[in-house]
């Protein structure tokens, strides 16, 4: 090494880890609430991915491809499962602003790609109206809106008969969905019918719109109303610097609400039929960016191994699967690729990942492409 080259010192965790539950899963002291539900959780310690930067990494994790234009997981579920509630979208997206370095989120992460656009995710906003233009304009009554939709629907039906464009049919359906959501969304986002014990369980920020706590409770409310797929994004997990401070703040925000979501689903009898997944797009290096004597050191992206966890329908609770070497650099036992995870999740949701497909440009497209295998030890 020349004098101009920088060193990358190994940075052991400054936070303590301990075993919890009957499974003996190792959990950081930063996640005391998650440590209380480890026997309901299936940990994967041997995830790996092909991508090393955020944009392709998230695109790959969401769609099974690093290239934009493919359908997201939620869109595949909308396409495969259909709707269970005519008054709400099949696929809903919720975004919380985290702490620290913010990476951009692209709408294509919940896009429908080559699937019909009715299957794309519907993002609920964290402030103001949950969905833009859902409310009637001043002076416009609900009856006025109904008459307008009937007239526009008739014109669209004529266009559909002329052009046979399936997107026209989607436009008709989405306009009707928006009309029904005028009644269903205000009720959905009103937490006044939740008891005090439930609100306390999700934590002090549960009544703050757009917070991770509020979105976790909203996810439960969506799930119990038959929404097929709910995607929660928590931004800010990119500590290239100031890791000790930012990581402690970030985990404090998510720990209690995500554990509460598992407990809440379980006590309502919904966990067995609801699959919960928590993950990032890749891991972080064991070596530091910046010297260890500085309080603002961080870690770089690391696709070769990282952890994720699942809970609920179809997965084996109290399971710890896979292992890495002492430096968390390479996987030593039971590697799980993103395609393998997708295949396993689809299996839990009732699909053969090799048969859930859509014909596009002369090829049968799949979430797992031509890869992926169901990881049977993860199944209940």
List keywords for this structure.
380 residues, 16 strands, globular, Alkaline Phosphatase, subunit A, alpha/beta, five-stranded mixed sheet
Which helices and strands, and how do they pair?
Elements: E1 17-20, E2 25-28, H1 32-35, E3 41-48, H2 54-63, H3 73-81, E4 91-96, E5 122-124, H4 142-163, H5 166-188, H6 196-202, H7 212-224, E6 229-234, H8 243-267, E7 275-278, E8 283-289, E9 298-302, E10 306-312, E11 319-321, E12 323-324, E13 331-333, E14 336-337, H9 338-348, E15 358-360, E16 363-365
Parallel strand pairs: 3-11, 3-14, 4-5, 4-6
Antiparallel strand pairs: 1-2, 3-10, 7-10, 8-9, 12-13, 15-16
Helicity range of the residues?
25-40%
CATH architecture of the domain at 17-81 and 235-378: 3-Layer(aba) Sandwich
Secondary-structure-based class equals: alpha/beta
Described by strand count, sense and barrel closure, the largest sheet is:
5 strands, mixed
Q: How would you describe the shape?
A: globular
Order of helices and strands: EEHEHHEEHHHHEHEEEEEEEEHEE
Head-to-tail CA distance between termini? 50 Å
Q: Ranges with pLDDT <50 over ≥5 residues?
A: none
Number of strands: 16
Q: What is Rg?
A: 22 Å
The level 1 CATH classification of the domain at 17-81 and 235-378 is Alpha Beta
Question: What portion of the residues fall into strands of 2 or more residues?
Answer: 15-25%
Please, what is the CATH homologous superfamily of the domain at 17-81 and 235-378? Alkaline Phosphatase, subunit A
Helix count from the secondary structure assignment: 9
Mean of pLDDT: 92
User: What fold name goes in the CATH topology slot of the domain at 17-81 and 235-378?
Assistant: Alkaline Phosphatase, subunit A
